[in-house]
Amino acid sequence: TNNDDEISTDGIPSSPLDRPVLSAIDTLSLLVFAGVGKASHSAVDGSLDLIAVLVTAFPFLVSWFLVAPLVGSYRPEATKDISSAAIQTTKAWALAVPLGCILRGVIKGYIPPLPFVVVTLIATLVILCAGRVGYTFLSELYVEMF
Questions:
Q1: Using CA atoms, how far apart are residues 68 and 91, in angstroms rounded to an integer?
Q2: What angle do CA 38, 59, 106 make, to 5 degrees?
Q3: Is 142 exposed, middle or buried (0-12, 13-18, 19+ CB in 10 A)?
Q4: What gap in Å lies between CA 119 and CA 68, rounded to an integer?
Q5: Which range has highest mean pLDDT (87-91, 109-113, 139-143)?
Q6: How many other β-carbons are positioned within 10 Å of the β-carbon of residue 105?
Q7: Cα dist. 97→11, 63, 101 in Å?
Q8: Phi then psi for 8, rounded to 5 degrees?
Q9: In angstroms, what is the C-alpha Rg of the chain?
Q10: At 121, is the secondary structure helix, strand, or coil?
């Protein structure tokens, strides 16, 4: 038996590979989070170790790209308007970022301190939502212009 919901999702891109610009924005968002975090703990001269940024971002990138496609964050509906972008990002974030904290703890061999977890949750929500809402806004603007 066919259900209208099943028909409407056939052929709709849901993979990060199907939406490379959105995937790049998500990646950049998580790298910005890691970079800002590392910069706040950087050397006195303000230098930033790019390898350390990548190592910090790695568990969050892995968890994001495991979870976000499963909850539909790469489907067109996820960015159909600004409200959808914020809601869909928050759904993926609610699962992916705690998983990223767990993966980071496993990699580092200890449970991340509570202040790190709280700051991570707040910062990643703001940065990921800003990236996706910005993408959606610009997409809507582009469609209206052309």
A1: 8
A2: 100
A3: exposed
A4: 21
A5: 87-91
A6: 15
A7: 28, 7, 6
A8: -70, -20
A9: 17
A10: helix
CB-based contact 51:91 (threshold 8 Å): no
Local structure of 12: helix, strand or coil:
coil
Helices (H), 80-113: 82-108
**Average pLDDT rounded to a whole number, residues 13-17:** 78
Give the Å distances, CA to CA, from 61 to 10, 65, 135: 27, 6, 19
> Residue written as tokens 């910090």?
56
C-alpha 21 chain-centroid distance: 13
Question: Two tokens at 145?
Answer: 């212009």
Phi/psi-derived region of residue 48, left when phi > 0, alpha when psi is between -120 and 50, beta in every other case:
beta
pLDDT tier for residue 118 given thresholds of 50, 70 and 90: very high
What does the pLDDT read at residue 84?
Answer: 96
